[in-house]
Amino acid sequence: MLLVSAFWNLPAFAATDQVTHGPLPTWVEPTALMAVPADASGMVFIRRQDVAVHLDQRGQQEYNNLRIKILHSNALQMGNIALNWNPAAGSPVVHAIAIYRGSEVIDVLKKTSFEVLRREDQLEAARLNGVLTAVLRVPDLRVGDELEVSYTTPTGDPTLGVNVSGVLFLQGSPAPGR
What we know:
Mean pLDDT is about 80; it is low at about 1-15. The strands form three sheets. Strands 2, 3, 4, 6, 7 and 10 form a six-stranded mixed beta sheet that branches. By secondary structure, the protein is mainly β. A hairpin with a 2-residue loop joins strand 3 and strand 4. The chain has one domain: Immunoglobulin-like (Sandwich). It has strands at about 1-10, 20, 45-55, 60-70, 80-85, 95-100, 105, 115-120, 130-135, 145-155, 165-170.
């Protein structure tokens, strides 16, 4: 495995404690949906799962998109969505939360919104990290529905100031004869 570490000189993000809504970033190219096989089994079938990290003059951002088909009632808990972020790094942008039911597309964000929580997981040890959690319960999610969640979160570390670091793990093929 190859380890690559780099430092960039980037401006800090603006602090915010709200989830915003917006279009996909221009640097995102969602992958094609996988077809659901007729004999799909298990709890869910993942039709698309995209994760992309982007670095530019505004800082580092992570795009996530998940579209799943609910195959079992135990998977309905996938409708409990939680986003975590450091408000000093910026605000998460939700692009879409939708239910696909047959030919109908239900925009969950039209009738439901996120509730922002301040959950300090190490409060008993007198450690505060300031990370916020936004939660949303997708209403009326049913077995057979497809759920899509798409958002971008700033992931820079504000404690580094204008110096942002990152680590990228790359796996190469083993050398011949190994």
